[in-house]
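tokens incoming
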């Protein structure tokens, strides 16, 4: 082998090893920000689209209970109670989730700045990233929970509307 081939082989090996490196702290922070922004969009879509119509349909179904037979009422009423519980839970939890998402984004921005300027020790940055990862996972789980619950409520209300 000549020197060029050996040099090319080493460069290729170095590039391969560099591409297999774990994510840097800045990449991890960017990924967390991306997830929070995605969750913000989903939460806003839930609030703007699904929830508003769900609440209107719930009110319509609730006001029509008086026209149901006793047998139908025994089936429909518990379902409406459950839907109402999820509606109330979403109403109470959504502003808290939104505030937590906003503060998480601010913290991630500050952490990224501190990590980029090496203001904080690498071990401290890693610890903060772990904390923020747990927070982002918690928020993502809450968003997924409400997306699922509101979807189930939609199906329940559609079924109730067919009962009438």
């Amino acid at each position: 082998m000549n020197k060029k081939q050996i040099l090319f082989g080493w460069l290729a090996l170095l590039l391969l090893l560099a591409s297999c490196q774990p994510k840097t702290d800045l990449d991890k922070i960017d990924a967390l920000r991306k997830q929070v922004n995605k969750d913000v969009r989903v939460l806003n879509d839930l609030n703007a689209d699904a929830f508003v119509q769900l609440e209107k349909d719930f009110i319509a179904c609730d006001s029509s209970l008086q026209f149901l037979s006793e047998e139908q009422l025994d089936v429909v009423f518990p379902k409406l109670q459950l839907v109402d519980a999820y509606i109330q839970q979403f109403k109470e939890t959504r502003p808290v989730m939104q505030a937590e998402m906003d503060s998480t984004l601010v913290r991630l921005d500050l952490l990224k700045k501190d990590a980029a300027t090496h203001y904080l020790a690498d071990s401290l940055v890693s610890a903060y990233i772990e904390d923020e990862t747990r927070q982002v996972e918690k928020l993502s789980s809450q968003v997924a929970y409400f997306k699922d619950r509101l979807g189930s409520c939609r199906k329940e209300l559609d079924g109730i509307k067919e009962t009438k």
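note: The first helix runs from residue 3 to 19.
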